[in-house]
């Protein structure tokens, strides 16, 4: 039995929990049974109904008190503990596997996804043991585009996370509805989403006395990002059903959900793979209720 789902990651405050809430409601409205799995022990007030909660296995507060750790060290400890007790998670997921689509809400500590290996081992254990097809949805706050230095950091973070996790991966500029409130961007939005020629950023980096000091380093980092040619972004306003729908189409294609339930030939599969992503998500009149639910 193959299951499908999303690994929702991104820096603190990038919108992961809000995303899991909005995405689960959207998917339910288009007819999927969704199980949201909270793997962030620092998430206390969850806005969504949680099928599995890491809090039932380990509590961040207890870890911090018992081992005299701060919140970051505590989270790394919790991920380590989860990896060692992966059978707990596997046994909770197994009964849901038959008919549920999974959303895994991970902690925002970015070092868990490009430095430490516990989170990656947990994800890959789920993939191997449960035959799950997972896409990493990496959220980055769109306001980072307003500052060239922060934008380069976001690119670097996205690239290192992609390389580390080795999953089908979609980078998302979240809270795109707020982008205009941060002032005018130096270039149009496509420049930031398509990541085609970063040399244009150099002029703007030079205007800032703080970043001009690191001119050479930033240039080299931009060259690395461009040489890999892996990073681009899609945009998201979680309150806009069209924006969420477009992202769902990308994710469904990346993890193979669009092929599930098709018993066709190779020709049939290739037709679907090559087709434009114009599904019928917007036929549903009850989608109008989506905004009201958030
Ligand atoms: N305008 C707007 N606000 C958003 C959007 N997504 C999230 N937010 C807001 O951003 C803030 C942070 O969102 P969270 O979902 O808590 O972010 P998180 O990544 O789970 O944060 P941590 O748990 O700290 O890692 C909240 O105030 C959300 O309401 C969006 O698409 N548009």
From TrEMBL:
Record-linked SUPFAM superfamilies: P-loop containing nucleoside triphosphate hydrolases
Q: Name one GO cellular component term.
A: cytoplasm
Q: Which UniProt keywords apply?
A: GTP-binding, Hydrolase, Nucleotide-binding
- Name any one Pfam family assigned in the record: ATP_bind_1
Is Glycosyltransferase given among the entry's keywords?
Answer: no
GO molecular function terms attached to this record: GTP binding; GTPase activity
Question: What InterPro entries does the record tag this protein with?
Answer: Gpn, Gpn2, P-loop_NTPase
Q: Does the keyword Hydrolase apply?
A: yes
How does the record describe its quaternary structure? Answer: Binds to RNA polymerase II (RNAPII).
Role description: Small GTPase required for proper localization of RNA polymerase II and III (RNAPII and RNAPIII). May act at an RNAP assembly step prior to nuclear import.
The similarity annotation says:
Belongs to the GPN-loop GTPase family.
Q: Under which name does UniProt file this protein?
A: GPN-loop GTPase 2
Task: Give the organism the record lists.
Answer: Dendrobium nobile
């Amino acid at each position: 039995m193959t299951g499908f789902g999303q690994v929702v990651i991104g820096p603190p405050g990038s919108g992961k929990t809000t995303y899991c809430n909005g995405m689960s409601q959207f998917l339910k409205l288009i007819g999927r049974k969704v199980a949201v799995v909270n793997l962030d022990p620092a998430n206390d007030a969850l806005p969504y109904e949680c099928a599995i909660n890491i809090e039932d296995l380990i509590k961040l507060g207890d870890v911090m008190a018992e081992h005299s750790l701060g919140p970051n060290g505590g989270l790394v400890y919790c991920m380590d503990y989860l990896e060692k007790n992966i059978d707990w998670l596997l046994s909770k997921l197994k009964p849901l596997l038959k008919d549920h689509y999974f959303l895994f809400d991970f902690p925002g500590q970015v070092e868990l996804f490009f430095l430490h290996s516990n989170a990656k081992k947990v994800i890959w254990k789920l993939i191997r043991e449960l035959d799950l097809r997972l896409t990493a949805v990496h959220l980055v706050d769109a306001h980072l585009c307003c500052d060239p230095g922060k934008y380069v950091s976001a690119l670097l973070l996205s690239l290192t996370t992609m390389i580390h996790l080795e999953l089908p991966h979609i980078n998302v500029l979240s809270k795109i509805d707020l982008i205009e409130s941060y002032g005018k961007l130096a270039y149009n939005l496509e420049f930031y989403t398509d990541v085609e020629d970063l040399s244009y950023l150099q002029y703007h980096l030079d205007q800032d006395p703080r970043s001009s000091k690191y001119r050479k380093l930033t240039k080299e980092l931009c060259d690395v990002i461009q040489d890999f040619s892996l990073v681009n972004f899609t945009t998201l306003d979680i309150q806009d059903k069209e924006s969420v729908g477009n992202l769902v189409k990308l994710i469904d294609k990346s993890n193979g959900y669009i092929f599930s339930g098709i018993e066709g030939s190779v020709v049939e599969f290739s037709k679907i793979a090559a087709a434009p992503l114009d599904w019928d998500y917007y036929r549903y009149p009850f989608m109008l209720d989506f905004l009201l639910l958030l």
